[in-house]
Design brief:
Four Helix Bundle (Hemerythrin (Met), subunit A), 5 helices, globular
Length: 168
């Protein structure tokens, strides 16, 4: 039996990204800067908008498999907070582009690339394991953001069983 692990992996990775995107889409303007958790370095790191950006930036970086040569697209920056929170539209645009990148990366993943080592300060997984690690990271933040929305009376969050097709 031939197992299509790429399709299975994308279906679940895409589902996590779609649930994360749902939380962002459902966030009303008045909750965009709500504190999801306290951050001792700067309160903005714990705000809804920053958690959304943080999640997408790491997704984008992990799809590269290395920090070398990685730069997020404008207007996003690394290593400093922007003067103003990124807008919902900016975040959703970055998410859409990164979702497409993720789907293409997984669907065209070769066995050789899947086995390549990815070196980070805290771990050295294979490229495939890094993607599974990142899928968990996306789902963690999807859950956090959905919980906060629910605590503020926002409805509409739902479980996504498999990646949706043709999302914009």
């Amino acid at each position: 039996m031939q197992v299509d692990w790429r399709a299975y992996t994308w279906n679940q990775y895409g589902a996590a990204i779609d649930m994360f995107g749902d939380a962002i889409n459902l966030c009303p303007e008045n909750l965009w800067t709500v504190e999801v958790y306290k951050d001792s370095n700067d309160e903005r790191y714990g705000q809804f908008w920053f958690i959304a950006y943080h999640t997408i930036r790491w997704l984008d970086l992990f799809l590269n498999g290395t920090r070398e040569g990685f730069t997020p697209p404008a207007p996003f920056i690394v290593g400093a907070l922007p003067d103003e929170p990124y807008t919902k539209e900016q975040i959703l645009s970055y998410l859409s582009a990164t979702r497409k990148k993720c789907q293409l990366t997984i669907e065209t993943l070769t066995d050789e690339r899947a086995q390549e080592r990815c070196v980070f300060e805290w771990m050295e997984p294979s490229f495939l394991e890094l993607q599974l690690y990142c899928m968990r990271h996306v789902q963690e933040h999807a859950a956090q953001l959905s919980l906060v929305l629910g605590q503020h009376g926002v409805t509409g969050m739902d479980w996504v069983a498999s990646a949706r097709s043709n999302i914009e």
